[in-house]
Structure formats: C-alpha cells, structure tokens
Amino acid sequence: MEVSETEVVPLLEPREGIPPVVETPEALRDAVERLAAGAGPVAVDAERASGYRYGQRAYLVQLRRRGSGTFLIDPVPCSDLSALDAALAGTEMVLHAASQDLPCLAELGLVPRRLFDTELAGRLLGYPRVGLGTMVETVLGFTLEKGHSAADWSSRPLPADWLRYAALDVELLVELRDALELELDRAGKLEWALEEFAAILSTPPKEPRQDPWRRTSGIHRLRSRRSLAVVRELWTARDRIARDRDLSPGRVLPDAAIVEAALELPRTPDDLAALSTFRGRNTRRHAPAWFRAVQRGRTLPDASLPEHSVPGDGPPPAHRWAERDPAAAERLSTLRAVVAALADEHTLPTENVLQPDTVRRLAWDPPEDATPDAVGVVLTALGARSWQVELTATPLAKALSRLAAKRDA
Question: HRDC domain: which residues (predicted)?
Fold first, then answer.
C-alpha cells in the first residue's frame, strides 16, 4: 500500500542513536550474543568501496534485529563473521538487492540460509522504482538520508554522518519486509517471491568472465585485431597494478585512455604521453608499464591477435535473425509480445516474467512438438522457476503452435 506525499516523515536519526562501531574481538562476541538473543528476521546491509578499491569487499556490515538493536561491524579488523553466521544459521536475513551484497558477505563467512529481498519483492509487486529510499518512502512513509552510497567506505575513521546513513539503511528494513510480505500475499505472489529468494541463495558464484577486457568501455570503436590486442595488453597491465595497489582499475587508468592508445597505436613513449587521456598524474605514474603494454600489442604475430568476437554458447545476436533465420525472428517477436502481455496482466517487469535470454533461446530452438509440457521442460532447463513455467508455458506453447500451423499452411 502506497503512502501519500502528505504523510511522508523524514527519518533523521536511528531510534537508539548511532551505535559504536564493532572493531574488536570482544565487541564482536557481544554483538553475536545480542543478535542471537533477538527475535525475528535480521536486517543486513553492506557498504563497499566501489570506484575506489580493487574488488567488491565489504568495508562495513550493518545488522539490526528486534530486541537486539543495530550493529555496525568493521570487517577490516573483524574479518571473520563465522561465529555470527553460526548464531544466525536458522534466521531469515532481509537484504535489499541481495545479489549485490551476498558475495562480499560470503567472503566474511556470513551466508544466509533464508532470505527476503525487499528490492525483488518490490519488482514482483510492480513498483516502478525499487531503490531502498524510494521503497521506504512509498511503503512506510519515511524518507531516508541520501548521499553516501558512493562514498569511499575504506576510509578510516568513518565520519559520524556516514555511520548515521549506514545505520538508517537497516533501521526500517524489517518493517519494509513485513509490509511487502503482506502485499505479496494479498496479490497471490508470495509463493513466487519465496521461489525467487530460494533461487538467489542456490545460485552458484559466477564463473570468471571470459576475456573480461572485452568489456572495456568504448571498445566498439575499434576495428582492427591489432587494436584489440593493445586493449588486452593494457587492460591486463592495469588489472595487475590495480590489484597490487588495491585500487579501482579506473583510478589507475581510465577505459578512455586504453581505447585512445589502441586507436592511435603510439610508437614512442613521447607519442603515448602526448595523448590527451595519458596526462593525469595517476596515469603518468605508470607510464613505462603502459608503453610496454602498447608495444606488446603492436608487435604480436598475427596468429596471436584476438578475434573480433568470441562465439557464445547461445543464439546469435537477435538483430541478425531477420536475415539469417526469418522464421526464428518471427518466433522471437511473437514470444516477446506474449511475455509483455503477461507482464502487463500481472503487473510485473518483463524480465521477471522470463529472462530475455530464456525467451531468445526458446525462440531460436523451440521443441519440435510445442506442447505446454514440452515448452515447460525447455524453460525449466533454462533456469525458469516453477511459477514462471506455470505462468508462461501454455501461452508460449500456443503461440509457437500457431506459428507452426501458419508456416505449414
């Protein structure tokens, strides 16, 4: 249930004030005991230093539970939360956009067994904006402080206003969870949500991306394999330096500099230094390493140059279907329309009805006999949840059958 604008109240301070930061073994043991003695779900959040540090480790972990209060744990001195994990093993943990924080929490030994994701719940309920602040305001009628989500949380000591912001992020998270659970139940979507939460917890960690250098921003401007080789060498050199210095790669060398060097292919250190994107202080600091990387890319034998693209394990890009396989293109257009209609009917984002990649794969390689059961088997194999299969298999099968009959007529 949405709250009217006139009922919105600013939430400026945590109810019990800003708690002290837990940063000693003794304070951590006390936090574990008090959280274990609390009641109900535990609100959990983590602050990272994205854009400042290498990787996605947590630099602050916030927890709140009824009867326990709020705890701000510094995971730099308290890097092992396995005792907390054991104490809360049977407790539901409430996170907002859980998949963002679960990996860094797992690094500390904190792994939820039961989950409620308030962002995903909001998506399933059809809320158009599902950021935490917006959801708290829309559902509960409170506005949260903004402005520190992109801060450098690796800084020490953490300023009081940052700690206030961090504590407020879990202040109403359980209340939000309770309100959304009621809405999900009334909408007949609670079982859908529980399946989605379980799927998040059962998803294995992502495998390292093949050729991560190919995600360099602006790489689409490059036309030659030689230029791609320079990107690969510069990206690899940057990643090594960033890891060694524990800095975000973009702070060591911007993507724009990598792409400019790959376009210009400078032949001397002076040529490289003359490029506009190589004039920053941090960039100049490692100038010899950048030039060596460019030289490696420029002098590789042709047989060692990277290909323009790496074949994937799925269908070709959809924009090529009309020319390559018109029947598949028609199937894709039709199935997308079916999913969009179901999304409108049930007030869901289309990607929560079925992942776009699932729709593409089904359209590219449908079952020969497109019955609801056969389509359901394909969807399940592609990772669709039971509720998604139940919702979509029959209308998708009917659409595929109509197209097949039209083709055979």
Answer: 224-304
pLDDT at site 207 = 82
- List, in order, residues 6 or more apart from 189 with CB less than 8 Å away: 124, 125
What is the Rg, in whole angstroms, of the alpha carbon atoms belonging to the chain? 25
| In contact, 118 and 177? CB cutoff 8 Å | yes
Q: Tokens for 90, please give them.
A: 């049977």
The reply to whether 273 and 326 lie within a common domain is: no
Residue linked to tokens 């693209």: 309
Q: Which residue numbers in the chain have pLDDT < 50?
A: none
Please count the residues of the chain: 409
DSSP secondary structure, 371-404, as one string: -HHHHHHHHHHTT--HHHHHHHHHHHHHHHHHHH
The CATH number assigned to the domain holding 159 equals 3.30.420.10
Question: Do 121 and 166 share a domain, yes or no?
Answer: yes
**Dihedral of the CA atoms 397, 403, 408, 409 (nearest 10)?**
120
Burial 19-54 (b: 16+ CB within 10 A, else e): bebbbeeebbeebbebbbebeebbbbbbbbbeebbb
Do 185 and 85 share a domain, yes or no? yes
DSSP 300: S
Q: What is the pLDDT of residues 345-392, one digit of tens each?
A: 999 999 999 999 999 999 999 999 999 999 999 999 999 999 999 999
In a domain, 313, yes or no: no
Q: Is residue 375 one of the residues assigned to a domain?
A: yes
Residue 262 belongs to what domain range? 213-304
